[in-house]
Amino acid sequence: MKTLFVPLALLATFTAHAQTPAAPATGQTIILKPGNMQVQRNPAANRPDRAPVYPGGEQAMGLFFLEHINYPAAAKAAGITGKVLVNATVNEDGTTSNPVVAQSLSPECDAEALRVVSLLAGWQPAMRRSRPLPVLVQLPVPFGAAGMMHVEQVKRQPVHGKRQ
What we know:
Blueprint (H helix, E strand, L loop, with lengths): L1 H18 L37 H12 L4 H5 L4 E9 L5 E8 L3 H13 L6 E3 L2 E3 L1 E9 L21
């Protein structure tokens, strides 16, 4: 009976260690989304209660990008389209700082995305216990066809059988 107990004890110890979660890597990007924010009973000291919000939401930010992006001629000639993902800090005063390319498209598009993201201002900052808090956000900056909005118009069909 003792020989059976020892292997089970070793197996149980191995399983317990295998299930313990690893600590998150330092410098790992945390993407905050307004719909995924939750108030926690014992939150971390640097975790916001409310994510930063750009005035007018995603549509207003998309229009800002469309108005301010100068599509690089080299990228346009090469037919490069897509999104540059930029990590930036939304500060306590609603400005952005420290933009860094997280996912590149082309060197020209990357430089333009960094320039435009640094112009974004007027954010409602993230809040922690009613105090503004700087947080890192990830912004997709569209180039070419990636920035086009497609709007479908639906024709209204007359309803048959109803009297007017």
